[in-house]
Amino acid sequence: DTAVSQTPKYLVTQMGNDKSIKCEQNLGHDTMYWYKQDSKKFLKIMFSYNNKELIINETVPNRFSPKSPDKAHLNLHINSLELGDSAVYFCASSQGGRGESSYNEQFFGPGTRLTVL
Amino acid sequence: DQQVKQNSPSLSVQEGRISILNCDYTNSMFDYFLWYKKYPAEGPTFLISISSIKDKNEDGRFTVFLNKSAKHLSLHIVPSQPGDSAVYFCAASAMDSSYKLIFGSGTRLLVRP
Question: How many angstroms separate the CA atoms of B64 and B74, rounded?
Fold first, then answer.
């Protein structure tokens, strides 16, 4: 019973394609996130949703669109894939709670390695 | 502009000895700090955290120290075990930034048997 799961684990695709990565958490958390780990191994926040509301939207190309059908799911759709999109994408969740930093302990999924050829 | 820095990309220690991983930050608004451990092909796993109102937090073999005046924190692992070999990420958040975590670049720890 995985707490935060992502599918697929590996994704290899051609430039210009559109792809989606799915994320689900069964922890009952209110907040979910997408992070990108680039070739230099930095983990950078992309988006965050709290109870299906977008609360963090970093400087990310608008080819990336998150979608949260309910608070247990946060999917990432990427249009017109480019070579530079190749990275490992991590989904995470936390209990959240504005002003309550202790609720920001985030639980991560196993990652999706995206390779754009 | 890196707000959270881990200047040592790697560290090697003997089993049973102490491992000390360091992290520096620049944003004085950070009020909560976390350490994550990551094995290859897995997601980061939460290890230990500390609020800015404390200077030390301990959990078993893991202790995090925070020096606010120096904007520095460290993770001590005593005694180190081969299973501790992983990449350790330091992360920080500020109360006014919603739930955003800013991560360092990680330190790869190798514990030699």
Answer: 6
Write the pLDDT tens digit of every residue in B23-43.
999 999 898 899 999 999 899
Is A101–B51 a contact, with Cβ atoms under 8 angstroms apart?
yes
At residue B23, the 3 state secondary structure works out as strand
Portion 15-34 of A in contact with B at CB < 8 A? 31, 33
DSSP-derived 3-state class of residue A86: coil
Chain A residues in contact with B98 by the CB 8 A cut-off are: 48, 50, 55-56, 98
Q: How confident is residue A82, by pLDDT bands cut at 50, 70 and 90?
A: very high
A99–chain B nearest CA distance, Å: 5
Q: What CA–CA distance (Å, rounded) separates B11 from A82?
A: 35
Residue A87 contacts B where some CB pair is shorter than 8 Å: no
